[in-house]
Fold this sequence. Notes:
Layout: H1 3-13, H2 16-25, H3 29-33, H4 42-49, H5 52-61, H6 76-83, H7 86-95, H8 110-116, H9 120-129, H10 144-150, H11 154-162
Pfam families: Ank, Ank_2
ANK repeats: 38-70, 72-104, 106-127, 140-162
Keywords: ANK repeat, Repeat
Amino acid sequence: MDTEKRLYEATVEGDVRVLQELLQQDTLLLDRLTLTCFNETPLHIAALRGHIEFVRLILAQNPQLAVELDSRKSSALHIASAKGNLQIIEMLLVVNSEMSLACDRDGRNPLHFAAIKGQVEAVKEMMHVMPRAALGTTTNGETILHLCVKHNQLEVLKLLMDIKWCWVPSI
């Protein structure tokens, strides 16, 4: 079985042991991923599947993967935010908090994803780390408040309204 297929299968399963074996055989394996045109990196898939230890190892080996975007211009942080996986969100934010501001092809940032999916704790964490992400608008001009109403996420809306300081522009 070729290396890329083994890596993909290990990623889907969250098999850290296989990832470690592959990295021992080829220490540049994850580095080369940033040069290819994959739809999703192993980090995207691991974030989707909630494989915390797999994400930890990938970020330790190649933190640059945190800024890679998939074909929809989504980062691993977009995916982890939609899934509400706090441990993965925290790891990704430590590596690069600026990814909180990255927009997908529809202009949605990771905070938008968390709000749309009603991931209250994820919204709290991202607001704590990068509150200005709440000021972003989608390509349709929708704010995070619009998205909360549109997707019937009233608990997130209430949380955002309770964080009054985030809506006041700094002087």
